[in-house]
Amino acid sequence: MALQELIKQEIPVSSNKKLVVTVSWCKACGICMAMCPREVLGAEPVTQAVMLIAADQCNGCGLCELVCPDYVFTLQESKSGLTSHAVASREVIL
Questions:
Q1: Measured between alpha carbons, how far is 49 from 87 in angstroms, rounded to an integer?
Q2: Which of the listed residues 29, 32, 49, 93 has the most CB atoms within 10 Å of its CB?
Q3: Residues 90 and 20: beta-carbon distance below 8 Å
Q4: CA atoms in the 13 A half-sphere facing the CB of 41
Q5: Residue 40's closest CA among 24, 22, 62, 25?
Q6: Predicted confidence band at 6 (pLDDT cuts at 50, 70, 90)?
Q7: Smallest Cα–Cα separation from 30: which of 75, 90, 70, 61?
């Protein structure tokens, strides 16, 4: 069984909601970037995978979650207080 690094970004979109972006799952199709009405998403220069370029502009509309064929985006309720900035994390999964 191979190890896979899981790279995620989280941004608060309201006092009780956050957008979780699982960057590792992105296949760089560009659909989310084309559909985002606030131009929050852009392409990472080398891999062309999605990245947050204007996280503070995200309003949590959920279009990225709806159109992504790779389930990269998830809008989640936050039970604890959110910070006012984006958070990146890395996990290793089996």
A1: 17
A2: 32
A3: no
A4: 28
A5: 62
A6: confident
A7: 70
Q: How crowded is residue 51: how many other Cβ atoms within 10 Å of its Cβ?
A: 18
> What is the number of other CB atoms lying within 10 angstroms of the CB of residue 40?
24
Between the alpha carbon of residue 80 and those of residues 29, 35, 77, the distances in Å are 33, 30, 9
Per-residue three-class SS string for 25-76: HCCCCCHHHHHCCCCCEEECCCCCCEEECCHHHCCCCCHHHHHCCCCCEEEE
Contact indicator for 2, 14 with CB cutoff of 8 Å: no
Residue-wise pLDDT tens digits, 32-58: 999 999 999 999 999 899 988 998 899
